[in-house]
């Protein structure tokens, strides 16, 4: 959990400027994301209508996982969270952004690669998202 908080904070620092109000906003966004991620086994940040987000959700549902889904276009802080996730993803596409066991797993490519190579189910089991 601390790793994610550290990663989210470092991403927030990269987007933040020198203005104190911006830092306060970034800190609150960082705290919100950290709280969501650390309090749930699997979290998927999405945008409604995004086909790749739909694919990730369906894969997880098909495996028997009930992820916490945060649709950023329906969140008041969706824009700042999207910016934070974009930085966390290293400039790659920000959504879908999947967190497993409090750690940032990645986007669609990483999730699919883990599924294909057989490492996704063990990750989900270790996070407490699967009991089989």
From TrEMBL:
Entry keywords, A to Z: Cytoplasm, Redox-active center
InterPro entries in the record: GlrX-like_pln_2, Glutaredoxin, Glutaredoxin_subgr, Thioredoxin-like_sf
**Would I find Zinc-finger among this entry's keywords?**
no
The Glutaredoxin domain extends over: 42-104
The compartments listed are: Cytoplasm
This protein's superkingdom? Answer: Eukaryota
Tell me the protein family, please.
Belongs to the glutaredoxin family. CC-type subfamily.
Question: What's the name of the protein?
Answer: Glutaredoxin domain-containing protein
């Amino acid at each position: 959990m601390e790793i994610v908080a550290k990663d989210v904070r470092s991403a927030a620092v990269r987007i933040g400027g020198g203005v104190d109000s911006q830092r306060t906003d970034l800190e609150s966004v960082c705290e919100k994301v950290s709280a969501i991620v650390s309090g749930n086994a699997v979290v998927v940040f999405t945008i409604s209508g995004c086909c790749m987000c739909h694919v990730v959700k369906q894969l997880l549902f098909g495996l028997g996982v009930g992820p916490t889904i945060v649709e950023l276009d329906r969140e008041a802080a969706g824009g700042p969270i999207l910016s934070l996730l974009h930085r966390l993803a290293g400039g790659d596409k920000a959504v879908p952004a999947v967190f497993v066991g409090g750690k940032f797993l990645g986007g669609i490519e990483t999730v699919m690669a883990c599924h294909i190579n057989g490492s996704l189910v063990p990750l989900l089991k270790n996070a407490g998202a699967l009991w089989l």
